[in-house]
Amino acid sequence: MRAAVLTRFGGPEVLEVREVPDPVPADGHVVVRVTAAAVNNTDIWTREGAYGTAEDPGARSGWRGDIDFPRVQGGDIVGVVESVADDVDRSLVGRRVLVDPAFYDDHGHPVGLLGSEADGGFAERVAVAAARVHDVSGSALSDEELACLPVAYGTAMGMLERGGIGAGETVLVTGASGGVGVALVQLARARGAQVIALTTEAKRSRVAQAGAAVTLDRIQPVGAALARTAPGGLAAVLDVVGGPALPEILPRLRDGGRWVIAGAVGGHTVSLDLRRLYLHNIAVIGSSMHSPHHFDLLATEARRATFRPPVAARYDLADIHQAQREFVGRNHVGKIVIRPGTGR
Ligand SMILES: NC(=O)c1ccc[n+]([C@@H]2O[C@H](COP(=O)([O-])OP(=O)(O)OC[C@H]3O[C@@H](n4cnc5c(N)ncnc54)[C@H](OP(=O)(O)O)[C@@H]3O)[C@@H](O)[C@H]2O)c1
Question: What is the DSSP letter of 149?
């Protein structure tokens, strides 16, 4: 089969589209013919080895440490079950499935990811655990729309659940035009929250279309704008950006508010006035991906098709380098999807 193979840490040149042996399902596994697989930051940062380690922040490393090269990346997988191991229910064959890309510890915390700790979906076929496939045969969403869900919407679902976001609450979403940001806007809105979205001027109308009640330009000072837009204070900040805007944002949380942090695309080292946290009973909630329960909730939303994830662009597997360039350019809103079953 054809696959995009990561040969070592490095620039785009270390990603090679070439023929590799077909996967064989081990006990408890199925082989999925991949029809769509979306691009995530983790594909770029794993290729670059940009995660660092606790001992050495500058070290070349995957998010959990070493990567076993060669590795097929891609954590967002949708496809059709083609074959199953002898110990797996044969009725799965032919089902359209959404794959939960996480490996979990005994507490349901994600400790590994398809495409990083095992081969993923930038290939014509992938072997995955039968327990991790969710039947979405009847969903009204297309394969490309479904492929937007696992990492970005899984992460967003984890943030909303861990932050206890409910109907009627006013929440701020940062990085609102990105994969996780749009997911937060759509999923928060679907549960009846009022969303204020921080984005760039050129993307405001597309973020509003996704369901944000108010959009604010992140280049302008945000503290005063938030005070005007949410005079009663924010119930939660759903944050994937961190960075220099944070000292202006956190004081806008109301007493008992939650700062749910899942990314730091704007800068991971920040300066905080701790008094703004403890004097107002602000909860700081670190959020890594999702739990099996969160993914079940997401699969239910996918079957109901309660929202349509925006697909910003589509690429054949052979054009994965171009897809990654567009992703890193960040002029898009939503997700960029690879179609391994098509093209050269
Ligand atoms: N914890 C987890 O499990 C998990 C899972 C997935 C992703 N993440 C992390 O979450 C973050 C977002 O992921 P994503 O997939 O949504 O990324 P993405 O699609 O690249 O979107 C990130 C968005 O952040 C905004 N942004 C970019 N640079 C910024 C800056 N310097 N200051 C402020 N905003 C900036 C941009 O939106 P605007 O132009 O609209 O501002 C951009 O569209 C990344 O750090 C990623 O590693 C974490």
Answer: I
